[in-house]
Each structure stands twice: as structure tokens, then as C-alpha cells.
Design a protein that fits this description.
two-stranded antiparallel sheet, mainly alpha, globular, 263 residues
């Protein structure tokens, strides 16, 4: 009963996290079906939790940082790790995966598709679990954290609260470079487990509107990005906010140019 109460408190305390989580579940089921969605979710959450548990005790893989327990009793924790923090990795990794697919999936070159008014991205298991998608997903996963973590570190200035700190602040707005390496490691480990499962599961049925379904996950990526940039500007960190905008703008422009080829 106490755990249930803490779950309810967590949802009320962190509604934005659960809105993103719901968007992840909806878009993932649409794109890859429920069988793959719950595996993706469980693998990425468990990997993130183990890595956070390890890093707060050994410094690996994120480097040294500590949760201060300031919200214990207000939200659900697993050991010393807030549930909302570790679960965020799942929807961020999926969103990064969708963006990588949007940037890398080839267009179907079959005569029937070429004759259609809109080209369709090829979503077979070989292309969606390729080495290029694997590497780019991990990069984009760490890349979005370069906007998220600097503003999260300043959580005492907005509704996140001051929930963690680095004993040795780093060069990137107080974030050590090891933190971003750790995010890439979580992504690489999670996908290294998930991709072989994806290949073994029954094939997904073909979807005529695969690009539209993929855009749901890409929209999640840019929704989270816009939320964090909005908070960054709201707390008065204009230079930090503009840095994030300029970092991510080239990727967005490349994506727009590429997907407009399908029309």
C-alpha cells in the first residue's frame, strides 16, 4: 500500500515525466507493437537503473554523482535512485532510436512504392538493427542529454528540485564529460540486448504509413528537447539555451530535408 501511495505521489509530483512516458508507450506500440515495446522498456530501464546504482557507488559509467534524497517520501525511489529518473532513459532512448531511423532508413525502391505519391521508408529488421542505427542512436541519446542535464542540475530553480549533484563539476555547464559517455554506454548496452531480441521475434506486419508512425517517436524527441530548452530559457540561462538550440538545429534541418524527399 505504501508503494502504491508513492507511485500516485510520483505521478502527481512529476506529471511531465509520465506524459512523456505515455507518449513513448503510444508511439512505440504503433511502430513496433506491444511485444517489442515492453521488452525495450524493461531492458532500457533495468540497464539505466543498474548503471545509476553503480555510478553513485563506483563512478562507473557516468562518473561520480550523488542523489541527495531531498524528495524521499514525495516520490518513488529504488534504492537511492528516483524512479522517474531511471525510467526517463527508456522514453529518451526510444525517441533517439526513432530519430536515428528517420535519418538512416533507406527509402523503399520497389516499383510499386516508386510509383506511389509518397515514398516509404524501408523498415525491415536488418535495416532497423544495423550498426549505423546502433551507433547513431547512442550518439543522439547522449546528445539530447547535453540539453537535459545542465538544466536538471539547476533543478532548485524550477519544479524539478535539487535532487543530485556532482562532487567535481565538469566543463559543460557544470556537467562532467563522463556523464555523457555514461549515457552512450546505457544506450549501447540496451540496444545490444534489444536488437537480437527484435531479430528473433515474429516479423512486424508491413505498414503503409511507416513514416507517419516513425514521426510520433521523432516528435517525442523534439518534444522533450523543447520542454528542456523552454525551462532553460525560463530560468534565465539564455546562453545555455542558445547553445542547446545551435547544437540540435543542424540535425533537425538534415531530418527535414531528408523526409521532404518522401513527398
Amino acid at each position: 500500500m505504501e508503494v502504491f501511495d508513492l507511485v500516485i505521489k510520483t505521478i502527481i509530483f512529476r506529471p511531465y515525466v509520465f506524459i512523456f512516458l505515455a507518449a513513448f508507450l503510444f508511439s512505440a506500440v504503433k511502430l513496433i507493437g506491444w511485444q517489442r515495446t515492453w521488452r525495450f522498456w524493461l531492458i532500457s530501464w533495468a540497464t539505466a537503473f543498474v548503471c545509476e546504482f553503480s555510478s553513485t557507488r563506483t563512478g562507473l559509467p557516468f562518473g561520480w554523482y550523488f542523489y541527495n534524497g531531498s524528495t524521499v517520501g514525495q516520490e518513488l525511489y529504488f534504492s537511492n535512485v528516483p524512479f522517474m529518473d531511471s525510467i526517463s532513459f527508456s522514453f529518451l532512448l526510444f525517441a533517439s532510436y526513432c530519430l536515428a531511423l528517420g535519418l538512416l532508413l533507406p527509402f523503399d525502391s520497389s516499383p510499386r512504392v516508386e510509383a506511389a505519391p509518397h515514398k516509404r521508408l524501408r523498415f525491415d529488421v536488418e535495416t532497423r538493427t544495423s550498426w549505423a542505427v546502433y551507433a547513431l542512436t547512442a550518439f543522439l541519446f547522449a546528445f539530447i542529454d547535453m540539453v537535459i542535464d545542465p538544466v536538471a542540475l539547476r533543478g532548485d530553480r524550477w519544479f524539478l528540485g535539487k535532487i543530485y549533484y556532482y562532487p567535481d563539476p565538469g566543463w559543460h555547464f557544470g556537467i562532467p564529460f563522463a556523464n555523457y559517455v555514461g549515457w552512450a554506454v546505457v544506450g549501447l548496452i540496451s540496444l545490444a540486448i534489444y536488437f537480437p531480441l527484435d531479430r528473433r521475434l515474429p516479423a512486424l506486419p508491413p505498414h503503409e504509413e511507416i513514416t507517419q508512425r516513425l514521426l510520433l517517436g521523432i516528435g517525442l524527441y523534439y518534444g522533450v528537447l523543447a520542454f528542456n530548452l523552454g525551462v532553460t530559457f525560463w530560468i534565465g540561462e539564455s546562453f545555455m539555451g542558445m547553445s542547446g538550440v545551435l547544437m540540435h538545429l543542424p540535425v533537425l534541418l538534415i531530418l527535414i530535408v531528408r523526409l521532404t524527399r518522401a513527398n
